[in-house]
Amino acid sequence: MFSLLILPGDGIGPEVMTEVRRVISWFQDKRNLKIDIEEGLVGGASYDKHGVPLTEEILNKALGVDAVLLGAVGGPNYDNLSFDLKPERALLRLRKELDLFANIRPAQCFDALASFSSLKREIVSGLDIVIVRELTSGIYFGEPRGIHTDGSNERVGVNTQRYTESEIRRVAISAFELALKRNKKLCSMEKANVMESGVLWRDVVNEVHVDYQDVELSHMYADNGAMQLVRDPKQFDVIVTDNLFGDILSDCAAMLTGSLGMLPSASLGNKKNNGLPRAMYEPVHGSAPDISGQEKANPIACILSFSMALRYSFSDAQNANLLEKSIEKVLAKGYRTPDLMMGDQGHLCSTSEMTDKILEELDAG
Ligand code: IPM
Ligand code: MG
């Protein structure tokens, strides 16, 4: 029996999570999947009830379970809160406390959706790349940080990019391991031309490469990487990069595929005593307060996040493949949530109707 903690969060988070629960129930009923599910509050929803975006109780539960599935956090109601009370803080704290250092963000272009990309069809069709983003260090967490007043009474904002060798090494290992299971190509991105942390990054990635000679390694400055991602994204297989560059490059990669509503992610840490990695799965999209409560949200990114949980936490590639294939078929038949509609092509679906179609495809086997 696996244990899963579901944290729907804010905005469209709870809506898409309701759909994921229907999918999970299908696997429990029809495929005998053994998962024990608990649910809790996170982000703004937790702040509203408890005055903090993440309670110790939920944090402890997250530390205890096999995997966490999170919807989305944030919303306009919370914009004026102090930094440590903002919904996003819950995400950052979960990442840090669970030590989820490797954030895996696939950008895969479903054939049926290739014309949605802002890039030409031939540049993105068949695209299948993965960004491995370092998630627990770098400028997001480096000290010193803050806003202070200097000698001449001017305010100064400070953040620090800081990486230790071991932090770089472990995420590099994750990226090489992933590349081995794919097309054996890894591109590491930093700014070694201007940043010492980038020089060290490149150095350590080269050291790790010694143990992964089957993987073809290249290095790119992150700005060039951004350019190459929109010029010719299919040149990449796996990309490894730091926390901030990874944040930016993964949004860019996401848009190549046409819709943010399609992309899942996994954040993985070290293996626990039972051999399973610490893990949190979440859609790449945010809480989308502008469409929440209107049955417009696309549940696919969150459903695919569950599929990643099947694959990476529960070693259940068979059910993960089944789920992914079913989604592909539904898209190929033209079913579309509003974010995927182009003119009047396709059959418009609400959030729950999209899940209905996926369940029908699962039933059909
Ligand atoms: C992401 C998001 C987060 C980040 C925010 C919400 C804190 O943009 O997961 O990419 O910057 O890491
Ligand atoms: Mg981001």
Question: How would you describe this structure to a colleague?
Answer:
This protein has a ten-stranded mixed sheet with strand order 2-1-3-12-11-4-5-10-8-9, with helices on both faces. A two-stranded antiparallel ribbon has the order 6-7. Helix 7 (196-209) links the parallel strand 8 and strand 9 (216-221). The chain is 40% helix and 22% strand. The longest helix has 18 residues, at 13-30. It has twelve helices and 14 strands. The relative contact order is 0.16. It has 365 residues and is α/β, with parallel strands linked by helices. Residues 247, 251 line the site of magnesium ion. Residues 88, 91-92, 247 line the site of 3-isopropylmalic acid.
Helices and strands in order:
Blueprint: E1 2-9, H1 13-30, E2 35-39, H2 44-50, H3 56-64, E3 67-72, H4 87-97, E4 102-108, H5 121-124, E5 128-134, E6 142-149, E7 155-160, H6 165-181, E8 185-190, H7 196-209, E9 216-221, H8 222-231, E10 238-241, H9 243-256, E11 264-271, E12 277-283, H10 300-312, H11 317-332, E13 335-336, E14 347-348, H12 351-364
Parallel strand pairs: 1-2, 1-3, 3-12, 5-10, 8-9, 8-10, 13-14
Antiparallel strand pairs: 4-5, 4-11, 6-7, 11-12
Helix pairs in contact: 1-10, 1-12, 6-7, 8-9, 10-11, 11-12
Bound molecules: 3-isopropylmalic acid (IPM) and magnesium ion.
Magnesium ion (MG) is lined by residues 247, 251.
